[in-house]
Write a structure and sequence with these properties.
This protein is mainly α. Helices cover about 60% and strands about 0% of the residues. Helix 5 runs antiparallel to helix 7 and helix 5 packs parallel to helix 8.
Length: about 260
């Protein structure tokens, strides 16, 4: 068996620095620490911000699977190895992309009440994911739970809004995690419906209902789902995902307030 060549990157590509095997293990140093103290470069033709912006453009246009180091180099008009000065591979790149889009998760300074902070953050998160649906298509557990500076800042803002209300830190984190889980689940379902519409060539929810009518007609016709049938007949907000999201969010926040007395 042939061993890994000295200076090889994590994905098998040679390191641009040609570092020896005596160098510190890059995995032991986080991406963010490396970017805070980058190695000197003769000319700053490439930056982490440019890399992230280009990768996000690719993902927004062609999907997350289209984001490769080779495609990125083409987009940036640089040598294939240029980006390895900042990222060691796809995992680092996904973290950089995630942090870049979550830079938009900002709230007004005058939003201080815990519920207002949670609600505003949830609504803003939904907007971000709907603009960048690849965020929910990332399959790597590391990327799904990436600790990036802007994600950490959002968590800090949420936790700080709960501080001083008589909750211990475990309860505070449980509240933040519960709201985040609701947002992830609800927006994932919304994005999945958009994807289903594209797969069926539908331009509207009415088109999708027509496409799914044969199987729905049979299931409703069995008489086993009378309440769901009533929903189909009487619902007036079937095409209002914003209302559904906010109603569910307010229900979650009401439950938290009632359960914890805050």
């Amino acid at each position: 068996m042939t061993g890994k060549k000295p200076g090889a990157a994590e994905d098998g590509q040679p390191s641009p620095s040609g570092a020896s095997t005596d160098s510190p293990n890059p995995a032991a140093v986080s991406l963010w620490e490396r970017l805070d103290r980058p190695a000197p470069a003769p000319r700053a033709t490439l930056t982490p911000q440019k890399i992230a912006a280009a990768a996000v453009r690719i993902a927004d246009t062609d999907g997350i699977d289209a984001v490769t180091m080779r495609r990125l180099a083409t987009e940036l008009n640089v040598a294939p190895m240029a980006a390895y000065r900042y990222v060691s591979g796809k995992a680092d790149l996904l973290d950089l992309m995630t942090d870049a889009v979550y830079a938009d998760l900002t709230l007004p300074d005058d939003v201080e009440n815990w519920r207002d902070v949670m609600r505003a953050g949830a609504l803003r998160s939904r907007e971000i994911v709907l603009r960048h649906p690849w965020l929910i298509q990332i399959s790597s557990p590391q990327s799904l739970h990436a600790l990036t500076p802007h994600r950490m800042a959002a968590a800090e803002r949420a936790l700080a809004s709960l501080d001083g209300l008589g909750l211990d830190v475990d309860a505070m984190m449980a509240v933040v995690g519960t709201v985040n889980s609701y947002v992830h689940g609800a927006v994932s379902a919304e994005c999945a419906q958009h994807l289903l519409m594209r797969e069926h060539g539908c331009d509207s929810n009415d088109d999708l209902r027509h496409a799914l009518a044969p199987q729905m007609r049979y299931l409703i016709g069995t008489g086993r789902y009378p309440t769901y049938h009533r929903y189909l007949l009487e619902a007036t907000r079937k095409d209002d995902p914003q209302w559904r999201f906010e109603t569910g969010l307010d229900s979650v926040l009401d439950g938290i307030a009632a359960r914890l007395g805050i």
